[in-house]
Amino acid sequence: MLAPRGELDIHAVRRLREPLIGLIEGHGPWLVLDLSEVGFIDTTAVGLLVRLVHHLRDRNGDLALVAPHGQVLRILRWTNLTCLFPVFDSLSDVLADAGRR
């Protein structure tokens, strides 16, 4: 699980892209992003999330988002991306869902 904070913008994406790919390559094709401390997301970060989910699904994995709120959740809803990503209220909800699979 990764829990970025603050703004997910072009600058954050530059810092996060390689560590995220490293997590996937090193720990498998399942990734949970806790967005509870993220107050802003821009199109660059949305693009990264879309690329990540496709990268993970190509490896029979998935990307789960935890607790997006405010502007972040609005952007995900407006772009209809809540249909692409499993979105959960908490990490325990993610783990419960994984136990049912």
From TrEMBL:
Pinpoint the STAS domain residues.
1-98
The protein's matches in InterPro entries, at most eight in alphabetical order, are given as: Anti-sigma_ant, STAS_dom, STAS_dom_sf
Query: At the top level of its lineage, which domain of life is listed?
Result: Bacteria
Q: What CDD domains does its record include? A: STAS_anti-anti-sigma_factors
Under the heading Pfam families, the entry gives: STAS
PANTHER family reported in the protein's UniProt record: ANTI-SIGMA FACTOR ANTAGONIST TM_1081-RELATED (PTHR33495:SF2), ANTI-SIGMA FACTOR ANTAGONIST TM_1081-RELATED-RELATED (PTHR33495)
Which family is this protein grouped under?
Answer: Belongs to the anti-sigma-factor antagonist family.
The protein's matches in NCBIfam families, at most eight in alphabetical order, are given as:
ant_ant_sig (TIGR00377)
Instruction: Please report the name of this protein according to its UniProt entry.
Output: Anti-sigma factor antagonist
Organism in which the protein naturally occurs: Microbispora corallina
